[in-house]
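Q: Protein A?
A:
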Amino acid sequence: MALEIRQNLKLTQTLIMTQKLQQAIKLLQLSRLELLGEIHQVLETNPVLEESQVEEKSDLQEPEILPFAGGSEETTADGEAINPPEAKSAAEEWDWDSYLQDRLMPTPTFGDFEEREAPSFENLNAQKPTLKSHLMWQLRMAELDEEGEAIGTLIIGNLDRDGYLQATIEEIAAEMNASPERVSEILEIIQGFDPPGVAARDLKECLLLQLKFSGQQDPLLIAIVENHLNNLGNKNYQAIARDLKVPLEKVFQVCEPIFKLNPKPGCEFDAEDADYINPDVHVQKVGNDYIISLNEDGLPKLRVNSFYLEALRSPENLPENVKSYIQKHLDNALWFIRSIHQRQKTLYKVTESIIRFQREFLDQGLAHLKPLTLRQVAEDVQMHESTISRVTTNKYIHTPQGVFDLKYFFNSGINQILGDQIASESVKEKIRQIVQGENPENPLSDQEIADILHRDNVIIARRTVAKYRGMLGVLPSSKRKRPGYRRKDLSETSAS
């Protein structure tokens, strides 16, 4: 069969996403902080768009504009024609008197600044000390010679965030051209600094340094830390008692101070600052109804620059390239404002739907959270599931029950004996409460927790309990066992 080249005409339908549609989809899934950055970026690149300095009734509304002669008429999403607003001319809007007055003002002298009241020290931000700066301050107070201070600086520089030394004595000695004995001497000095346990080379040395600092030098306690850390971590007290040939009750009593030690002494200095959440939506209960309000504090109020609107009123006086330039940026500005307006409108509708599904949760708490899927909300608001997924990404809602991620309300369901379903988050809360109320001397196994939930009308397997327990950060029963602890002692420890 001979090969030949032919031309065939084939008609197909394909979905092509325009740049404007991609921008609208992108705005849906942006967080509030990312949306603010996107708005500022568009304000810098689009001269037709500007930020309104006064509160206007039409903020983030679709602006109206008169298209230039000969162009296609702009319409709204509902198909209605857009008409021009009443606007002042550019010459009338510009305040020449204020401009000239600012230019003619004399340059302030040093005396002018002296008369101003400086901010109080209470309003100044205090710089939080780091672990290295805290240790360097103590090193300078130690009054070492030049070589000792240089070795100490190198040792402090090789500490990680937890306060552990990440270099060996031999490596530091080779780097400083000093003897290992001299490095060990400086290291011993630094190990006596605050916080206790800093500059240790492993967990064992860290705990021993803290015991030494607190004056607890019981030989049995030291022997447990030096030789039985693994057994202690696995709660294998019988092995410790058998190896050290002491009663089991004595091991329980001696191990008590170890649980109060800090295995990461440097974390308190280099801990990251907490990121505070600024909710996108606020839900408040007024009477028997829940009122939804979108958080638009700090978002710029956008509008079309009146100078370009005035220019388009007389398109015959504009060159063709200028006219097309203005119309292009004007079209982008209108689409951007409409996209933001649509984003806020969609977020409101989705939040309203979630409140309808999760009304009992808002009224009574986590135990009444219902299973919910994206499809249920999508069918309720008549949108696609992908749109619901995008609009709930990186969004937070403030409710009478606390601040939650919008994705929090979408969770799977666990079957109940009577045929209903309960949300997986509610089951996790039940597991957490069961573990908190257990006897610390005889903690519940995963199967026992599953049996308790089964008596509470929740059908759940043991492996599912283990999965949820791991998600809650709860240790297995073998590692939760605290022999010799009374329930009262446990509650006091949790309160402290």
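Q: Protein B?
A:
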Amino acid sequence: MAKKILLVDDEPAIIKGLKFSLEQDGYETVTAYDGGEAIKRFEEGGIDLILLDVMLPVLDGIEVCQRIRENSDVPIIMLTAKGEDMDKILGLEYGADDYMTKPFNILEVKARIKTILRRTGVKVERPADSHVLRAREMEVNSELRQVKLRGEEINLTVKEFDMLWLFITNRGKVYSRENLLEIIWGSEYNGDLRTVDVHIRRLREKIEPTPSKPEYIMTKWGVGYYFTEK
């Protein structure tokens, strides 16, 4: 079945170009030209990935992203005409999986989409004896891509889950930010290292009792991050 991509931008020419190119590659597309329409199209169901512009009428892309993240971990790639780092990081803070700055190369867009969709349903390599791992009050199920903390399900994005599963299946192993970019985002990704820090911070906010004093995902200063061995 063709993957369905929601294209959200207030510039018809951009929508037209993306729609034509993606459909040529076999994707199904749904379009929206403002934030309110984007929410409606998403709620109709069946969306596998969203290309979401930041600057939109009615609701901006950040608010759209935030609302969708309240109930879904569908992959979201933010599109922005601005080059400032804060705009990029802000998008990631609210749950985006990736970002691209306009003007963009359509081949790069398709490469990013392919990479993210490949990981959406693909499990990070895990021990063969179990798809459910536990650490203290946390339970992580790789088949359901589900995380429970004290019995309550925690909503993680695709990359947050992949990062957590990588950590919990390799307890005590320290991963540098460069390692994590390569493993989780892939060699095609050209983002900066702060992307990793943003995702680590957001993951800690969701799973740590006190994010400023983590008990699960630890920092080895000057080296990287690791999952507690305790």
